[in-house]
Specification:
This protein is an alpha+beta fold and 400 residues long. It starts with 18 loop residues before the first helix and ends with a strand. It has 9 helices and 27 strands.
Length: 400
């Protein structure tokens, strides 16, 4: 677990929080903590087990609990369903328990919202140390109309190729942009290209009409090098966030399996992985029409539609749009998410295989940067005392 070894064994009567640790906690709340101080506070926290943390809950609530309580609602931390129920209990009548929860909430905030180097974090199975897993990065493969492939994760920028009169440019920010011929030359031949991201990859592309598409890991986008005709059509699998350039006379259509989404100008997210039971479409801005052979639904901002395997639409009128697009903004956000759903996201982003050696379906709420090593996410779930993880050779095992 890391941390200072001399803090590993605490006498049961010891409840003292060192004064300098209280000062570091206060600095973290005020947003003025330095990197070295952050590292010290993190090390102190990781030196304790949850049982040992309970011993100092009473003093913690007295020392800093009121300040934490006033700000607690602003932060999201990992907890399971049972713990969330306890957190909502009265602060006065359960002061000892709430002191601990308040304390954990603060320290979860410290870990969640401060960018740190967790490259040295490791887990043990017996005496043997195992390696951590680094997060994914910007990488993808571009496939041209003639089958030529271009790997987009190298350092090369500038013109990559041409498709008819359309130039394909890799920009300095790493994204790829299709630049159509400004002279208006029309080519009869349609050049279809595709971009695919592997596990552990993501990518951004700017289409010829100026529309922007962000691809999550294990995703695929097929599109023409330049849009012709009365509509702009693309196809996807996996997950993508769209920011569509408005063209009233030429609607934008996204095709995904047996469903299509029609838009004029809008921002929305589609999640359509083959290993998921539903396709979810979440509208952030603008308007959409989602339809298949059996149904057609118009959407307004803040709504989410799920299409199940039976081709049935289910509308969620007040969806958590922040959670739906968290991946695009560099975050994991889970709201009462099943451990199975969480670990599928872990598999895709960290390019690992997950093996379950437990049957209980736990649910967690919390958030974390997608730029952290996988141990940061797993450790936060372990702190609930409901689950344990083992990391070895590109595989994560979920244990009781």
């Amino acid at each position: 677990m890391g941390g200072n070894s001399h803090l590993r064994h605490i006498h049961p009567d010891v409840k003292h929080v060192p004064e300098h640790i209280k000062e570091l906690i206060q600095k973290s709340l005020d947003g003025v903590i330095t990197a070295d101080e952050m590292k010290e506070l993190d090390g102190w926290f990781y030196s304790f087990s949850p049982e040992e943390l309970a011993l100092i809950s009473e003093e913690t609530e007295t020392a800093i609990g009121r300040r934490i309580k006033s700000r607690l609602d602003n932060y999201v931390f990992f907890e399971n369903r049972a713990q969330r129920g306890r957190r909502r209990m009265n602060w006065i009548s359960v002061a000892a328990i709430v002191g601990l929860i308040s304390f954990l909430s603060l320290l979860f905030y410290v870990i969640s919202f401060q960018i740190q180097d967790h490259s040295q974090v490791a887990y043990t199975e017996g005496p043997e140390m195992v390696k951590d897993v680094v997060p994914g990065s910007n990488k993808a493969v571009l496939t041209l109309a003639d089958g030529t492939t271009v790997f987009l994760d190298d350092n090369h920028t500038g013109q990559l190729s041409t498709q008819g009169s359309t130039r394909i440019i890799k920009l300095d920010d790493g994204s790829v942009k299709y630049m159509a011929d400004v002279t208006g030359t029309v080519h009869k031949k349609v050049f279809y290209n595709s971009v695919s991201t592997p596990r552990g990859g993501q990518y951004q592309i700017v289409l010829a009409d100026g529309s922007k598409v962000w691809l999550n890991s294990s995703s695929y986008l097929r599109f023409p090098a330049v849009f012709s005709g009365d509509t702009r059509e693309v196809e996807i699998t996996g997950e993508a966030f769209f920011e569509i350039a408005r063209q009233v006379a030429k609607p934008f259509v996204v095709k995904v399996r047996n469903m299509e989404v029609q838009v004029l100008g809008t921002q929305f997210n589609i999640s359509a992985y083959n290993d998921e039971d539903v396709i979810t479409t979440t509208l952030v801005k603008g308007s959409l029409v989602v339809k298949n052979s059996r149904n057609s639904r118009e959407m307004t901002p803040g709504e989410q539609i799920a299409l199940n395997r039976q081709d049935e639409f289910h509308l969620m009128p007040n969806a958590d749009t922040e959670e739906a697009v968290a991946w695009k903004n560099g975050k994991f956000i889970f709201n009462n998410a099943s451990i199975y759903d969480i670990m599928r996201k872990v598999e895709r982003w960290y390019d690992v295989d997950v093996n379950f050696k437990r049957d209980k379906d736990l649910h967690f709420t919390g958030q974390l940067s997608r730029h952290e090593n996988v141990s940061a996410l797993l450790r936060k779930m372990e702190l609930t005392n409901e689950v344990h993880f083992r990391i070895e050779k590109g595989k994560i095992t979920v244990l009781p």
